[in-house]
Amino acid sequence: MEVKILFAILLAGLFLVESKYIAYNTSQGIVPDKINVHLVPHSHDDVGWLKTAGQYYVGANNSIWGACVQNVLDSVISALLDDKNRKFIYVEMAFFQSWWRQQSEALKTKVKDLVNSGQLEFINGGMCMHDEATPHYIDMIDQTTLGHQFIKDEFGQKPRVGWQIDPFGHSAVQAYLLGVELGFDSLFFARIAKTEQSEKMRRLLRLYGRVLSPLGHLHRYISVFFPDIMILLMVLLLK
């Protein structure tokens, strides 16, 4: 009986409820005396995890994990071209480079315009979002260099933001060598060790820290801690 009543309500809703398109105000601007929420559409495409990098790109073996990065890039670029108010940040150059090589010169010109206007921004900029615990620091440098070189050659741009939201743990090498020395304005990261998520840290909004380079130069940073993400704003002091 209850199922029949529920079905009748749902059926009535289909005919009685009018649906219409709602245009959202997506214009930029800070509203004083209000909580201003910033939504950041971004990529997080594993360059190999449960599947190979190639399978992730073309969408093969989706019985293991449903993912097709090629479709993600196609839809994102199309959406950005449709509305100048939209923005997106892309991280993994291994996938973007593969996609880029398949595009026509006409579309490449349009994508370059998106980058120049700030609608599409490359952050981190390595071939992948490397882990910070097990890789050798030379490998971290090499894969970051390859990605940054591609961005410079094709777009004449330099990433300004570090984006390490999925490694399992974080290192001083990343903060200094692949943060401060790269000239990043900020470093966003998540997945901090459980042992560091103390109640004391949860009560703090701002944390202050220091990164000491091998040459003895002091770099200060301000970190903002949240339960699942930590933001480092690193300010390079004059040497």
UniProtKB/TrEMBL annotation:
Lineage at the top is: Eukaryota, Viridiplantae, Streptophyta, Embryophyta, Tracheophyta
May I ask which residue range the UniProt record assigns to the signal sequence? 1-19
Keyword terms, alphabetized: Membrane, Signal, Transmembrane, Transmembrane helix
The identity of this protein, by name, is Glycoside hydrolase family 38 N-terminal domain-containing protein
Question: Which Gene3D superfamilies does the entry mention?
Answer: Glycoside hydrolase 38, N terminal domain (3.20.110.10)
Q: What InterPro entries does the annotation carry? A: Glyco_hydro/deAcase_b/a-brl, Glyco_hydro_38_N, Glyco_hydro_38_N_sf, Glycosyl_Hydrlase_38
The Gene Ontology terms for molecular function here are: alpha-mannosidase activity
GO biological process: any one?
A: mannose metabolic process
The segment(s) forming the Glycoside hydrolase family 38 N-terminal domain are: 36-196
